[in-house]
Amino acid sequence: MQRDQLADFLRRRREAIRPAEAGIPDGPRRRTSGLRREEVAMLAGMSVDYVVRLEQGRSSQPSVQLLGALARALRLSDDERDHLFHLAGHQPPPADGVARLARAGLVRMIDLLGDTPALVLSDLGEVLAQNRASLLLTGDQTGFSGDRRYAAHRWFTDPAARAVCPPEEQEYHARRLVADLRAAAGRRSHDPTVTGLVERLRAASPDFDRLWTEHEVAVRRADRKTFLNPRVGRLLMDCETLVTPDHGQQLLVLTPADAETRERLELLRVLGVQEFTAGPADTPVP
Asked: Which long-range contacts (CB under 8 A, 24 or more apart) does 218-222 make?
């Protein structure tokens, strides 16, 4: 671990990124063009104290998961991400497989979408990156570990995961999740990560096992889905999915399907901005 070089790199990348690139309002109280430490901490899901210690070269060795979160928060390119891992004494994640990070180009695309919720997912349904509008809509979906990283696993093993979906749409959504996972399993038939995930899901969930045996296959493209948000209620969203040529990652863009949803999304955005700007400039936002 090259602490001094790591500290310098993180500090310079934080100072170089514009708040708008990370989906953060650039208000009149800002005294610097880059991100604040508390903003990096919020985006990466870690404490401000740890970000400070990293930038001062006083931290313990960060984990691979923490480095991935920092790379997403700082919008690092693939080369910058690999450099970050090397400085921290870790091997960079492989070019493919479930350990990879969101492609830098896709992360920039979701940032450019601004107030339109957008996510980057792996072909197994792991959320690799979200813009701020997506965070307001569904909460942070990037902090899970183990099998809980995958949307299908949470859906079939944790009843709370279904709270965002109305009861009348849950069977349809469950079928879509299984059909999409079936397509990924077909492409990666010799990948133990995929076969192991499917085996564990079949053992843990009779509902998943029932749907898996029906052998429905469908890669997610366009769809319409109702989200239940605890703050603004029902949101009817059109879901457009763009798939990379190797089918390894997906860009999911969510747009309001009617005028009522558009108004509720705007209210959600305003509530989020008010929360973020309510605290003092030099303290972390809850």
From this structure: 218/176, 218/179, 218/180, 218/183, 219/180, 219/183, 219/243, 219/247, 220/176, 220/180, 220/250, 220/252
